[in-house]
Amino acid sequence: MKSKSSVHPIRKRGSGSVVTSRGRFIAVIALPKVNGRRRSKCFYESSYEAAERRLTENLPQLGRESRTRQTVGAMLDLYLGSRKRELAASSWHSDRRRLITWVRPAIGRMLVTEVGPLQIERLLSVAALSGVRPRTLQAIYQVTRHSFEFAVRVGLRSDNPCNAVPRPRVPLADHSPLTRSEVHQLLANVDSRQFRNFYDLAIQTGARQGELRALWWRDVHLEQGDMLIQASLCDAEGKPIRKPPKTRCGRRKVVLTRSAIEALMDQKRYLEDRRLPIDGFVFKSRSGRALSKSSIQKQFKSTLRRAGLPSVRFHDLRHTHATLMLEAGVHVKVVQERLGHSSSQITLDFYSHVMPSMQEEGVRQFENYLSTAKLCHEG
């Protein structure tokens, strides 16, 4: 049995350790992994007290050196681990994919302290020359910037190299709303009842594709003439993930038009004809799962070709709803609430192209109103 004096005290986590081997005392200081491999620094002494002194003398210096010797690849692993607790699953998977595809191959083997603005510029240039879209390039820049902000926060370096690199610009989106005649032309050329109902509901409500994919029958109130939008479906690593709206205004009640109610009633009959349950997802496959994004896109593109319409995005059906409502004279506040925008200013910024014609019509209405009052006064 060991004497009380031979029992060594337990050291705090991260302060090194002392082990014995063949009568020698070894002071061990763990260092950060490099390329997934464990590393450590060992000092061999003849007594426990001497090994303790070695730890006390070398731990501060090695701690500083280990932080400066951290590779970008190891730092990105730490960053993703910390962000997984904060981000939605789909956003986390998107960030991870961009880091693995673009950032890690370019600078992953470099030390965190070696990366400067020049390396960030080269990273973005390689991505741009590979043909990525401007919005994707901006997303690569953003996740790189956030990862180095994390490195500064945890003491791996003193500054963020991305601060000296301008953020890639994204040109304003070119909205391509359909006209009233093009809407009827589109719906007349859909060769599937379910997809026709899906497109019609998108045009009649302005809901996003993910919001319609996530729509449940329990949120549809045909008697009251409205539906609740409470979630959206997005794909992460090939799997659909249901998530709540990003903002409070995104969770909303949308009053249904007669055409929207007819589309939902026809969708119910469609499911009954195929002996599928009228519960769960409103739009579903034969297996009862939500419609996949790829099947919607494929069907939409083929419908546009059959209808002889220009190649527009599915999201342009949302712009079609907003544009036609504004052209019909609906107040911008109503349009904002239907779209789930957090403010009317966002709606005005998106659809400013509709405003000139609305202003001309408003001037004519004002002029007629004032002229009528003048005639009444003279009479």
TrEMBL record:
InterPro entries: CB, DNA_brk_join_enz, Integrase-like_cat_sf, Integrase_catalytic, Integrase_recombinase_N, Phage_Integrase. SUPFAM superfamilies: DNA breaking-rejoining enzymes (SSF56349). Transmembrane segments: none annotated. The keyword Lyase does not apply. The keyword DNA-binding applies. Keywords: DNA integration, DNA recombination, DNA-binding. GO terms for biological process: DNA integration; DNA recombination. Residues 173-364 form the Tyr recombinase domain. Signal peptide: none annotated. It holds the Pfam family Phage_integrase. Residues 70-152 form the Core-binding (CB) domain. GO terms for molecular function: DNA binding. Belongs to the 'phage' integrase family. This is Tyrosine recombinase XerC. The lineage of its organism: Bacteria, Pseudomonadati, Planctomycetota, Planctomycetia, Planctomycetales.
